[in-house]
Write a structure and sequence with these properties.
By secondary structure, the chain is of the alpha+beta class. The protein is 54% helix and 16% strand. The protein has four domains: 5-113, no CATH class; 124-224, 2-Layer Sandwich (Beta-Lactamase); 235-300, Signal transduction histidine kinase, dimerisation/phosphotransfer (DHp) domain (Helix Hairpins, Orthogonal Bundle); 305-463, Heat Shock Protein 90 (2-Layer Sandwich). Bound molecules: adenosine-5'-diphosphate. Adenosine-5'-diphosphate (ADP) binds next to helix 10 and helix 12.
């Protein structure tokens, strides 16, 4: 290591100057020949310069070592340096090396811990954000970036104002409170974007040592509770719907019993009439309970796909035979066009029977007297597609997306009058889901409706 020439010359000149001055004075008073004085001055200067080279070189080493300490990357390996220098300079170098090692270890540990924490936070499925005292984003984990970047199209979130990415006054207020040291709050909010999402936000102050207004920090942890709340709402609606569906026939039954015990006692004609009506109401309750049981059984098995090979021709022929008397009573003809449906599908025979029974029965019920129900089938793209087409009044477009909801009917009175439970299409949808199939509805008001089901074919490898 070469000492800087500038320092070497100036320091040598400075250190040599008293001796050179003394030689000059001696020469001035005549005690020393001028030439000898010049030679002595030069010799002193060169001697000091040579003596200074070593210590200045070591000082340069210390300087370099200190620079490398500040410039080194936080995750750099820690090198073990040794010094062969002796004396006070050697002690200083050794002390610097010791300090360097300790700091290096601490810094590496801190860096590793930070990286581990970052991996952990990024693995969290829930968005996490930390904020500085001015409610600007300091850190966002991967889930938060996915949510906020996707939503606002901002590429770099760090340093952004929270209000630019979460425009919820209640959240901003809660963050302000957290930054002034108030305890954790949990707030639920709904985003008003194209797709409504419900989030639960937990806003916490980050307390680290002596916090004051300038060093305050806050943390927001978001949890998407959309599905949870929807599920809760659906369960509540379902219970209310079932109770309502069963209460109506039960109320009529209670009424008939009271009439039979009271005004109609002894009136045989009235008794016969009322018993018929009571039987109708009991049948209706039985149908509702049976449909509910079917639905719950299918839902329970929905995650395991069936594995039997089923001939759709056979299933649909059986269903058509079964429904022929009902079709005749309603003056409806059933026409089958199933010649192309000659490849079996993967399915569950009983469930597929129920599926086609629900669809063909609806077509008979809503097709109307004198109409035709056509069931056609074809095989394409590894799927068997069956369409049940009727010539009924059709379904207004706005109702179609909701028809597979439990108890959803276009005309409740008409459905009840025809013995409907409002569960038939919900059952169809769940059976199709369990079969990894697709269910679609097309309808033209005034012309008729077409309900199509596509089911995966039994492939050769599954044979
Ligand atoms: P429901 O027991 O009331 O028939 P579904 O779940 O089978 O219940 O059908 C739900 C609703 O969809 C029916 O109430 C009816 O309004 C409508 N719908 C179903 N099939 C047809 C069809 N083929 N033509 C017209 N509307 C239909």
């Amino acid at each position: 290591m070469v000492p800087r020439p500038k320092y070497l010359i100036t320091t040598s000149a400075l250190l040599a100057s008293p001796s050179v001055l003394a030689v000059m004075v001696l020469s001035a008073v005549g005690a020393l020949n001028i030439w000898i004085a010049c030679l002595a001055g030069m010799a002193i200067l060169i001697g000091v310069l040579v003596l200074l080279i070593r210590p200045l070189r070591r000082l340069r080493g210390i300087e370099n070592q200190l620079s490398s300490l500040t410039d080194r990357a936080p995750d750099a390996d820690i090198a073990v340096h040794t010094s062969d220098a002796g004396g006070p300079v050697g002690d200083i170098i050794a002390a610097i090396y010791r300090l360097d090692r300790i700091w290096g270890h601490n810094r590496k540990e801190l860096h590793d811990n930070l990286q581990a924490a970052q991996i952990l936070f990024d693995a969290l499925p829930d968005p996490l954000l930390t904020l500085d005292a001015d409610a600007r984003l300091i850190y966002t984990n991967a889930a938060a970036q996915e949510l906020l970047v996707g939503r606002h199209g901002i590429s770099d979130l760090t340093g952004r104002d929270l209000s630019a990415v979460i425009r919820q006054p209640t959240i901003l207020e809660a963050v302000e409170s957290a930054l002034s040291g108030e305890p954790t709050r949990t707030i639920e909010f709904t985003t008003a974007d194209q797709v409504d999402q419900i989030f639960e936000a937990r806003i916490e102050p980050i307390v680290a040592g002596n916090t004051n207004q300038d060093t305050a920090r806050a943390l927001i942890l978001l949890r998407d509770v959309t599905e949870l709340r929807r599920g809760e709402q659906m369960r509540a609606d379902f219970v209310a719907n079932v109770s309502h569906e069963l209460r109506t026939p039960l109320t009529s039954l209670v009424g008939f019993i009271e009439t039979l015990r009271g005004p109609a006692r002894g009136d045989m004609d009235a008794q016969d009439r009322f018993l018929d009506l009571m039987q109708n109401q009991s049948n209706r309750m039985t149908r509702i309970v049976n449909d509910l049981l079917s639905l719950s059984r299918i839902e329970m098995n929905e995650h395991t796909a069936p594995d039997e090979h089923v001939s759709l021709q056979q299933v649909i022929n059986t269903v058509a035979d079964l429904l022929t008397p009902q079709a005749r009573d309603s003056d409806v003809t059933i026409e089958l066009d199933l010649d192309d449906l000659d490849t079996p599908v993967i399915g569950h025979q009983d469930e597929l029977t129920q599926l086609f029974q629900n669809l063909i029965e609806n077509a008979i019920k809503y097709g109307g007297a004198g109409s035709k129900v056509l069931v056609t089938g074809e095989v394409s793209d590894a799927f068997a597609r069956v369409s049940v087409i009727d010539e009924g009044d059709g379904i207004p477009r706005e109702h179609i997306p909701r028809l597979t909801e439990r108890f959803y009917r276009v005309d409740t009175a008409r459905s009840r009058e025809m013995g409907g439970t409002g569960l038939g299409l919900a059952i169809v949808k769940h059976i199709a889901n369990r079969h990894r199939g697709k269910f679609s509805i097309r309808s033209e008001p005034g012309i008729g409706s077409e309900f199509t089901i596509a089911l995966p074919l039994a492939t050769r490898s599954a044979d």
